[in-house]
């Protein structure tokens, strides 16, 4: 049987080691483990890579610890605007949503865009209208509220900065979540979901819902989910760049991912990480920050959740 695998991330903006307590560390690891096992079980049962990445990301969205779904960061107007995307490496079908509010699991709405609309990317009021037509239930703001996120926002709310501005303070700068998987058929998929950046305004959208920037999947190359300074990941077309290095320069998924995260994105001033898997089930998870909440599990025996280097 072919190797099947899944990798997940909860963002490359981990708490700096000094701020992480043993109790908090085990909460993060438990939440990662839950999502990893759920996605892996789907693969074990013969479900598709798309089903596995959606399930893993839904569970990460349901945890208040990560900046996606419940626990999303606050915008400049004290609301939550979430972005998500999903892509199927077998068909190159993709779905994405941006600037949505009140949706418990943005990744599932992205999947519905892919499967139930003629389009790839729906944003703002239109995306909400689409959700309404599909009878999505809306959660009120209290569902998404997280005290730590609110405190982060209060600290910068009257300034022009957003949490991307992390030079002085490196706590929890990126908290996007994502999953990539290779199923028993050798099909791969990627999903990414985020609340974006604290204190963002003007309808700011990062790389996470942009196919080719924060998320991409193609059976010929790899499936990728990114986390990091979105503006740079958009300019670097990071996810597609990794796929291009594999396709045109015959690099392995590991070589290509490392080239982009440890060299190309740094050269243009960005930081963060990504998770990637190819159609043989090989996983790569490079990051150039202090840590990245992450997990990987494969039918070839790999099984780990980690935070720091
Ligand atoms: N890449 C995300 C964004 O720019 C942030 C993150 O990874 O946490 O919206």
Automatic annotation (TrEMBL):
SUPFAM superfamilies tied to this protein: N-terminal nucleophile aminohydrolases (Ntn hydrolases)
Record InterPro entries: Ntn_hydrolases_N, Peptidase_T2
GO molecular function ontology, one term from the record: hydrolase activity, acting on carbon-nitrogen (but not peptide) bonds, in linear amides
Alphabetically ordered keywords of this record: Autocatalytic cleavage, Hydrolase, Protease
Annotated residues for binding of substrate: 204-207, 227-230
Residues at the catalytic site: 176
GO biological process: proteolysis
Record site feature (Cleavage), residues: 175-176
The keyword Hydrolase is annotated on this UniProt entry: yes
Gene3D superfamilies (alphabetical): (Glycosyl)asparaginase (3.60.20.30)
UniProt keyword annotation of Flavoprotein present: no
Name of the protein described by the UniProt record: Isoaspartyl peptidase
Organism, scientific name: Winogradskyella eximia
Source species taxonomy: Bacteria, Pseudomonadati, Bacteroidota, Flavobacteriia, Flavobacteriales
């Amino acid at each position: 049987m072919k190797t099947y695998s899944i990798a997940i991330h909860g963002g490359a903006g981990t708490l700096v080691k000094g701020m992480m307590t043993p109790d908090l560390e085990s909460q993060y690891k438990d939440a990662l483990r839950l999502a990893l096992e759920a996605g892996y079980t789907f693969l074990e049962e013969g479900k598709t890579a798309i089903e596995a990445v959606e399930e893993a990301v839904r569970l990460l969205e349901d945890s208040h610890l990560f900046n996606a779904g419940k626990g999303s960061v606050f915008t400049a107007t004290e609301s939550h605007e979430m972005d998500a995307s999903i892509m199927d490496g077998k068909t190159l079908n993709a779905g994405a949503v941006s600037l949505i509010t009140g949706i418990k699991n943005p990744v599932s709405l992205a999947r519905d865009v892919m499967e139930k609309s003629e389009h790839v990317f729906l944003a703002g009021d239109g995306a909400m209208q689409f959700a309404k037509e599909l009878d999505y239930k809306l959660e009120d703001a209290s569902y998404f509220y997280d005290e730590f996120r609110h405190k982060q926002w209060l600290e910068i709310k009257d300034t022009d900065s957003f949490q991307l501005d992390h030079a002085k303070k490196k706590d929890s700068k990126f908290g996007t979540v994502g999953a990539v998987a290779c199923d028993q058929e050798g099909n791969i998929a990627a999903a990414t979901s985020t609340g974006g950046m604290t204190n963002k305004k003007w309808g700011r959208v990062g790389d996470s819902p942009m196919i080719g920037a924060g998320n991409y999947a193609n059976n010929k190359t790899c499936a990728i989910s990114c986390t990091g300074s979105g503006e740079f990941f958009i300019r670097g077309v990071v996810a597609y760049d990794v796929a291009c290095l594999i396709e045109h320069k015959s690099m392995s998924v590991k070589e290509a991912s490392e080239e982009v995260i440890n060299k190309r994105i740094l050269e243009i001033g960005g930081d963060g990480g990504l998770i990637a898997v190819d159609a043989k089930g090989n996983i790569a998870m490079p990051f150039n920050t202090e840590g990245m909440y992450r997990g990987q599990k494969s039918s070839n025996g790999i099984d780990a959740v980690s935070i720091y280097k």
